Amino acid sequence: MRKKSVLSFCLAAVWAGLGFAGDVNILCSTFPICQITRNVAAGYAGAKVELLLPASLGCPHHYSLTPQDMQKMARADVLVVNGLGMEEFLGAPVRKANPRLIVVDSSQGIEGLLPYAGGHDHDEPAEDREAEHEREGEGANPHLFASPRQAAQLALNIAAGLAKVDPDGATVYEKNAKAYAARMNVLADDMAAEVKKLRNNRVVQPHGVFDYLARDIGLEIVAVTQPHGQEPSAAEMLELVRLIREKQAGAVFTEPQYSPKVGQTLAREAGIPTAVLDPVALGPADAPLDYYETAMRKNLETLRATLGVNP
Ligand SMILES: [Zn+2]
User: pTM, whole model, 2 decimals?
Assistant: First the structure.
């Protein structure tokens, strides 16, 4: 327990009135957002950080809340979310589970958002892409977390949001977030420097998960194989092979949350390498705090091994 001064005792009483009783219960929607939040709250005894969705789920694009999820939300004081439409299951159910739950949107105010073009290549007419956005209800790509440069921003946003809710922890949140953001920016710089040395920077991805990473470190996405999770038809496979050849892609990347079968078939047909690249959308329930950094450093090795390095 923290030592409580008279002032913090009074604050605790105020918090209790708002639904806080002692420690702040921070709930995070997804695995990557939880990992960033755990880093932001590291070493601070006044906050408990818990993950709402299963760590092994990956992107919750088609997720429905369970009764257990509702119970977790009922117990929480704060819910840190990915935002940008990633959590379509939120809204009314959250208010029903816990009307006092404060939502911190980690992507709020981040500039340079990319469209969520899904599986569309860049030659597609813009009006088609816009129609797609309207169908999905969101215009922006929600996968900021997969780029260290954006993870830095997410951490600062999360710290600012938590500081408002829990002023006692503000100093720690801010200090941790700044240190984390600095590490993420070094990581992004390292990745960008290494990508410059690659023989080929044109890649194929399963869904829009790597758009920010690609932009921020200098990769070019030339095709998307499973924009909405489902497998392409035979005709779509042929079109993808044609596109991969035409754009001279260097590799087809798969991701841990989808079966690698489609990517492997495409790579074989097109005669180029394939490998798993990890956006860290999922991970082990007991992931260490530096899990993301380790995974990104491994991604860098994968990029070098599959795309080749200039002599
Ligand atoms: Zn996704």
Answer: 0.87
